[in-house]
Write a structure and sequence with these properties.
Layout (H helix, E strand, L loop, with lengths): L2 E7 L5 H10 L3 E4 H11 L2 H9 L13 H8 L3 H28 L4 E5 L14 E6 L2 H11 L4 H10 L3 H7 L2 E4 L4 H16 L1
Parallel strand pairs: 1-3, 1-4, 2-3, 4-5
């Protein structure tokens, strides 16, 4: 039986670091954030139609989709947020479902799915095990400012829209704290993977 493991945590908690480490170890991993980026990069007519329908026409540029405009708008306008998320979630759901089906057919021992809004979107039923990464708000904001061009207001809105670490802890099978060095974080990750596979 293939063990399907969900990875979740708030923005800036360290999900990307964990995903990169798992890929390095040759584990099969579906990265939801990466899939969303690919959807925007492809700029399909279907996507453009969804953006226009969500009142996000200004985000459609000549050679790219301006995700900054989308981020700022959807955290100010609930209707735009609901419409574009409905489209994105439908696309991601299909890709995730295919990923699980293909790897189960290959009889992979364990597969990982990185979903930032795992609990918010009530997707816990998809997994045999759930790993939650937690980090202080201060550390999370510091990481985000380092690798993402995002306004303080947008960042605060994103954090507000996500459930608390306290709730994530209660609903997860494993907890990895990420407030120290990367080496410590990886050490804790190894311990969790070992336990899942035993």
């Amino acid at each position: 039986m293939t063990i399907v493991v969900g990875i979740t945590g708030g923005i800036g908690s360290g999900k990307t670091t964990l995903s990169k480490y798992l890929k390095k170890l040759k584990y099969k991993i579906h990265d939801s954030d990466n899939e969303v980026s690919l959807i925007y990069k492809k700029q399909t007519n279907k996507l453009k139609k969804a953006l226009i329908g969500a009142g996000l026409k200004k985000s459609i540029k000549k050679n790219y989709i301006d995700k900054k405009i989308i981020a700022n708008k959807i955290f100010e306008n609930e209707e735009s947020k609901t419409k574009i998320e409905k489209f994105i979630h439908k696309e991601i759901k299909k890709k995730r479902s295919d990923f699980i089906k293909i790897n189960k057919a290959k009889k992979e021992k364990v597969i990982f799915i990185d979903i930032p809004l795992l609990f918010e979107n009530k997707l816990d039923h998809l997994f045999n095990k759930i790993i939650c990464i937690v980090s202080t708000k201060k550390n999370r904001k510091k990481r985000i400012r380092k690798y993402k061009k995002i306004s303080k207001k947008t960042l605060d809105n994103i954090i507000k829209s996500q459930i608390t670490d306290k709730e994530r802890r209660l609903r997860s099978d494993y907890l990895i704290t990420n407030n120290e060095t990367k080496k410590t974080f990886i050490k804790r990750t190894k311990s969790v993977i070992k336990d899942i596979l035993k």
